Predict the structure.
Amino acid sequence: MLMVSSKLYSPASLSGREIEILDLVATGLTNLEIAEELEISKRTVDNHISNILTKTKTENRVELVRWALQWGKICLNDVNCCYLPSSTASQSINEAAS
């Protein structure tokens, strides 16, 4: 029997920077690699991740990524992604419906 943590069902409000860091965590980067990618200090990344874990009520990076997928905060390899149609695609659909 699969046990699903109730923690995965807690919504949380994350800042744009926290979402950016969460996306990099989901790609498998370390805190140091994230710091280098964003050109900020590792300590700043550590603080952001600590805050994200607290806000999402998750205990580690794996739980955090599962939470992010559950709430649609990240997209991994075209899984869990939502693409909005371009205006030309929408126009074509509307024209076809008329």
